[in-house]
Model the fold of this input.
Amino acid sequence: MSRKIFDAHCDTLLGSLTHDDFTRGTGQLHVDLPALLESGVHDQIMAVCIEPYTGREKEMWERGLKNFEEIRITEKPRLHFAIEGCLALSKGWELPFHPIVASLTWNGDNPYAGGIGSQMDLTEDGRRLAEKFTRDETVLDVSHLNDRSRKSVLKLGFPVCATHCNARRLCNGHNRNLPDEDITEIAETGGIIGVTFVPDFLEKDGSKATIESIVNHMEYIAEKTSIDSVGFGSDFDGVKNLPSGIEGARSWHRVIDALENRGWSTVDIDKAAGSNWRRFFKIDKEISG
Done:
């Protein structure tokens, strides 16, 4: 059965991409239009993250914006723009698209907060930017914040999400995963945790990550909160290796099959597959088909 999948995070925009490549599909990237259509992805959040590219930040910012402009004309699936790390905004660079979601940092620190590789807290500029995003209906993504900065953002009381994080209790080998108390607090804001497919976030030994690992994290988060707080955030094209059984966006049906095999109800699968994210982002109009 086809599901209306909402994937809350991919890094495809910084790949070598043209409109024709995306439309035709070259097999070089995890995400392209044929793969999304084949797998029933109706909403795809596409992030631009420049902070890993030291010395090339402006080049990658312009590449990401150009690529989104090239491919966003598709009506199905809906493609949504996101910022992963707000360094570009601190430099005053143009932001021609309204981001549906924004992460203040990537892994390091910047003028706004500390990422997972930093001990820095949320700054005053970061607090002001968080407030501005919320006023402008851009949701805050806490996925890359360190524990200190994330707790400071949660104290602001805004609805927030983690577009691509897993449960630290199941995989504590990486501090990108969320402790139980933060999973609970995010859910209490009405937010969603998007379980990611990054092998090292699924299993301490990432080589052992499978589709079953994905389901384990989804079930754990749902048990800690509710099924209404769980979604997907694949991180396709953000990592080279994927869990066993996942080759890219064409593999979504295998994840859905795994949920069905675990005994998830149709209603609960539909929530986790997409309707939770659409509710959270207030995207009420479903795509037919």
